[in-house]
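Action item from last week, closing it out:
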Amino acid sequence: MKTTRIVEAVLFASETPLTAAEIARASGDLSAKDVEQAIGELCHEYEAEDRSVQIYPLGDGYQILTRPEYAPYLERFDSITRTNKLSRAALETLAIVAYRQPVSRLEVEEVRGVSAAGVLRNLYERGLIEVVDRAEGLGRPLLYGTTKRFLDHFGLRAVDDLPKPENLEIALRTEG
């Protein structure tokens, strides 16, 4: 069997991102390096053929996903899994956690100006944030950080891939 087709089959069947090492387990003849090379070939093939799907690097792995421009066509089908949208409050809170992690509930509330307990609980239940430590001081408050699921949800490999704070105003201005 051709390596690219084995890699493609494994990625197609997976509902979550897989690392090159995980994909290599599909065959005793594959190494992580073979998988990385096959993923590169598949990406070029999909791009050259203008395919509706692409292999995206997410977290420390890869996943086959539909290209964003095809999303409106998929929204007409009930049988296709949708990502639950986040409220404005959830997105604001998540941004604070992502950029300031580790961060306490009080610090989030100080930035937002409103109570954040419910929103933090919702983000925690969705697996987008986690408790990463406890702060020193009175009551030793919980400190929150983002998770691998957060990276996957937003199509990031690492938190370092977030837009730089100094570029946010420019990014928001061009999208508005």
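Closing note: The domain at 3-74 is CATH 1.10.10.10 (Arc Repressor Mutant, subunit A).
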